[in-house]
């Protein structure tokens, strides 16, 4: 039994950051969901994944990405809904202590890419930005 199975609310997509997967997603699969993931491109650790309800028709969107070595990792899917507007779901993870200006620039590019599709878009994020410490944290307060 998983924690999700104890909830009365059913999720269409569950996002995971810091998957730390190498080559196999064993142990990550949730009953009723299909797991897609992307490892960190240059080092161990990191990684992002999406558990997608197996009743959804979806495709990985390789044309949309926020990846930038050591700054961000991302994974985007398109959910095809035959009689409704299609949906884009993306997970974006910003590694801690990385350049905030580069991250914001990359995020602006991603928002431009997704808005051109004229689809409903959900961005799930793990930004590792403490906006409450902007007075004593130069990177957050001045970038």
List keywords for this structure.
143 residues, 2 helices, globular
Tell me about this structure:
This protein starts with 12 loop residues before the first strand and ends with a helix. The chain has one domain: Deoxyribonuclease I, Chain A (4-Layer Sandwich), CATH 3.60.10. The chain contains two helices and seven strands. It has helices spanning 100-116, 138-142, and strands at 13-17, 33-38, 48-53, 57-60, 72-80, 87-94, 120-126. It is of the alpha+beta class and 143 residues long. The mean pLDDT is 80.
Tell me the layout of helices and strands.
Layout: E1 13-17, E2 33-38, E3 48-53, E4 57-60, E5 72-80, E6 87-94, H1 100-116, E7 120-126, H2 138-142
Parallel strand pairs: 6-7
Antiparallel strand pairs: 1-3, 2-3, 4-5, 5-6
Question: What would you say about this model in short?
Answer:
With 143 residues, this protein is an alpha+beta fold. The strands form two sheets. Strands 4-5-6-7 form a four-stranded mixed β-sheet, covered by helices on one side. Strands 1-3-2 form a three-stranded antiparallel β-sheet, with no helix packed on it.
Determine and state the CATH class.
Answer: Alpha Beta
CATH architecture: 4-Layer Sandwich
Largest sheet: 4 strands, mixed
Q: Taking Cα atoms only, what radius of gyration do you get, to the nearest Å?
A: 16 Å
CATH-derived topology: Deoxyribonuclease I, Chain A
How many separate domains make up the residues?
1
- The total strand number stands at 7
The CATH homologous superfamily is called Endonuclease/exonuclease/phosphatase
What would you call the shape? globular
Strand content: 25-35%
| Class by SSE composition | alpha+beta
Distance between the termini: 44 Å
Main sheet strand line-up:
4-5-6-7
Q: Outline the low-pLDDT stretches.
A: none
Mean of all residue-level pLDDT scores: 80
Helix/strand order: EEEEEEHEH
Please give the share of residues in helix: 10-25%
Number of helices: 2
């Amino acid at each position: 039994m998983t924690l999700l199975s104890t909830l009365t609310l059913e999720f269409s997509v569950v996002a995971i950051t810091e998957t730390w997967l190498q080559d196999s997603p064993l142990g990550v699969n949730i009953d009723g969901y299909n797991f897609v993931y992307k490892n960190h491109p240059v080092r161990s650790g990191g990684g992002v994944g999406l558990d997608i309800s197996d009743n959804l028709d979806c495709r990985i969107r390789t044309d949309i990405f926020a990846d930038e070595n050591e700054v961000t990792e991302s994974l985007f899917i398109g959910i095809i809904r035959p009689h409704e507007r299609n949906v884009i779901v993306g997970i974006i993870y910003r590694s801690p202590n990385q350049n905030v200006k580069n991250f914001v620039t990359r995020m602006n590019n991603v928002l431009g890419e997704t808005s051109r599709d004229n689809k409903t878009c959900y961005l799930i994020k793990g930004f590792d930005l403490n906006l409450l410490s902007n007075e004593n944290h130069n990177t957050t307060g001045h970038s």
